[in-house]
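Researcher: Please translate sequence to C-alpha cells.
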Amino acid sequence: MQELIDILHNKACSLVIRAQSGEVTTYDKKGVRDLVWLLDNEPERLRHARLADKVIGKAAAGLIVQGGVTEVYADVMSCLALPLLDNADIAYSYGDLVDRIVIPEGDNRCPLESIVAEAQTAPQVEALLRAHFKEKTLLGVRC
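Model: Translation complete:
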C-alpha cells in the first residue's frame, strides 16, 4: 500500500489503483467521477484491487464496496465511510479520520455526502448517486 500512497502524494492525481493484475493506474477527477467511470467502463480494474485516494467519504466508500475493492487508504476518511467498508470486510487506513467531509470552499458538508446521507448499504449509495448524476445530466449540468 505504501507504494500507492507515495504515488498519490508525488503525482498530481487524486486516486491510485493497483489492479489484481498488478497494473497501477492514476486518476485525477474530483469527487467520485473516476470511481463511477470505472464501475461503468472497467469494473475489472476495481475487483480485488488496492486503492489510495485523497478523500473517502460515504459516497466513495459505497462505490468502492460496489467495485469489489479489497483494501483502501485515504488521506482523509469520513467516519460515515467506515460502516460500509467494515460490512464489506475491506481493509482500510487513513491519514486523518473526520466526522464529515467538507467542501474546500466552506464548512458545509460535501454535497455527495448529503445526497447519500439516508443510504444504509453500498447499493443504496450507488443508486442515489446515479439518480443524482442522471438528474444533473438531464438538466444539462456537467457532473
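Researcher: Any highlights?
Model: The two ends are 30 Å apart (CA to CA).
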